[in-house]
Amino acid sequence: MMVPGLESEVMKMEKNQHGGARQGAGRKSGERKYTLYVRISKEANDIISRVPNKSEYIDNLLKQSCQENS
């Protein structure tokens, strides 16, 4: 049985004792800090599905394409 008025204090304590992330915890993003979602054709999907590191592959293709077009 809870004491009147004590229930809200207990709930505050319980709520603050778990959840959230520690500062600095988790995997670092490195130099890739942006997420992009795109729709691609089946043919492009067939090609990219065989690539082990899709992010690096696309990143390099975009950089190479920009250098060629400058």
Structural description of this entry:
The chain has 70 residues and is mainly alpha-helical. Helix content is 47%, strand content 0%. The protein has 3 helices and no strands. It is elongated and about 70 Å long. It starts with 5 loop residues before the first helix and ends with a helix. The model has no long low-confidence stretch (mean pLDDT 81).
Give a short synopsis of this structure.
By secondary structure, the chain is mainly alpha-helical. Helix content is 47%, strand content 0%.
Q: Determine the fraction of residues in helical runs and give it as a percent range.
A: 40-55%
Count of individual helical segments: 3
Rg, Cα atoms, Å: 24 Å
Q: Give helix and strand order, one letter per element, not per position.
A: HHH
What class do helices, strands and sheet pairing give?
mainly alpha
Average pLDDT, rounded to a whole number, is 81
Q: Give the termini separation.
A: 74 Å
Give me the secondary-structure topology.
Blueprint: H1 6-16, H2 42-48, H3 54-68
Features:
single chain, 70 residues, mainly alpha, 3 helices
